[in-house]
Design a protein that fits this description.
single chain, 187 residues, alpha+beta, Double Stranded RNA Binding Domain, SHC Adaptor Protein, 2 domains, five-stranded mixed β-sheet, globular, Ribosome hibernation promoting factor, Ribosom_S30AE_C_sf, RHF/RaiA
């Protein structure tokens, strides 16, 4: 597995990098047979250290977790435990998808925009109907089955996932409903 370990405005020493590679590698290898790469980012927020980890699996699925603590090693250990819990929870489903899927998930490109929220009250009239674009990025839309899309959404901790249903050209959406169930939009 390839590792990219970095710090946002903090130094990451060799001892921490070795600890991350050993511990995260062991945790992920226990539950996922073929991880491809891992990105671990450390940052500091006031008096707490924040650790964010993203692990890409060979099937195209992505697991991510984050944790905060007053010590950097404790932040990583909390993050690793959350990652391990996610992968343990979905181990059976991941194994089933590994057997069914011999090739990685097909990804197609798309644009992703972040729109500015209204800073004024909701009752005021907007100046124009054009939203203010804060950021524009490129994103990938995976080609998945509905079950894989739900699993990917839950592994990523996202409220919604846009995907292309395998064997179908149209875009589909799965989302977490207010009642706790999963909604699926199939146009």
């Amino acid at each position: 597995m390839r590792y990219q370990i970095s710090g946002k405005q903090i130094d990451i020493g060799e001892a921490l990098q070795t600890h991350v590679k050993d511990e995260l590698g062991a945790a992920v290898a226990k539950y996922a047979e073929r991880p491809t790469d891992a990105h671990v980012i450390f940052s500091k927020n006031a008096s707490e250290f924040v650790c964010e980890a993203i692990v890409h699996l060979s099937t195209g699925l992505t697991a991510q977790a984050s944790a905060k603590a007053h010590e950097i090693y404790a932040a990583f250990d909390g993050c690793r435990e959350k990652m391990e819990k996610q992968l343990r929870r979905y181990k059976r489903r991941l194994k089933d998808h590994h057997r069914d899927r011999s090739e990685p998930v097909e990804l197609s490109g798309a644009s992703s925009y972040i729109l500015a929220s209204e800073s004024e009250g909701a009752e005021s009239e907007p100046e124009s109907l054009q939203p203010i674009i804060v950021a524009e990025m490129e994103t990938k839309i995976p080609s998945l089955s509905v079950g894989e899309a739900v699993m990917q959404m839950e592994l990523a901790g996202a409220p919604v996932l846009v995907f292309r249903k395998e064997g179908n050209d149209g875009l589909n959406v799965v989302y977490r409903r207010d009642d706790g169930n999963i909604g699926w939009i199939d146009p």
